[in-house]
């Protein structure tokens, strides 16, 4: 009988496939080895499944409860035997073809998975290297800010600006450092306000320029670069973007803020006497008690600004809309020298 023979081979075959599958889960084996063992396990399982389908399953589907005996096979005619052999060959060829196709799909899938894992590990290593490089650049730039040489400090400032452009994650940190640099180099610590220089130091002006041209789209919600109380008389801040900046009690007398963006900025008690604010956008700014005596505010946008107790005596307000002028007359201080 053929059936017992087939059964004798079935148990060791299943055991071998199970052993290969167990070995594929062993973490001590290299990745490539587990990959190969997994492929063998899947191919063996697939082959065994095909064998079951073309053997017992096919006979049961055809209504046969058992394979033909040797006596039954001898009773077959020559043509029937040839036809049976050809049918068996055809079935084996189809099974082999199916096995090859399935094996190809399995190996292709495993290959793609292995490639994806390798790529992910490579990208992770690349990101780690990039972060390490950014950290080194940041550390070096901050160290340069403490140098006694002006050119080294300038190099550190512009290196920080480039870092903020390259790393979105460090954007806010960089501009907070620059704001701190401006505060630390405040000349009023050493001299009285009356003796302040007419222009900021070169490195302070560079820091202010960098702060004024930052990409505000990367600012964190509710956080701006805080320049509260800075002393920067005569600073060049033309077309600077200082929206939402906190400039409370800052001394910007004589500063050039023409066409600057100061939307929703905090300018309480700020000194801008005189200052050039022509064409500046001050919409929504908090300008309570601001000193704007003699300031040039021609064509500035003051809609929605809080001007209560603002001193605008002698200021040039020509070109402002009638409703804004009415607001100024109701909230701010002015005199006969104020030009509307």
TrEMBL record:
Lineage top rank: taxon: Bacteria
The name this protein goes by in its record: Pentapeptide repeat-containing protein
Keywords attached to this entry: Membrane, Transmembrane, Transmembrane helix
Keyword Transmembrane helix: yes
Organism: Nonomuraea endophytica
Pfam families given in the database record: Pentapeptide
Transmembrane segments annotated in the record for this chain: 37-58, 91-114
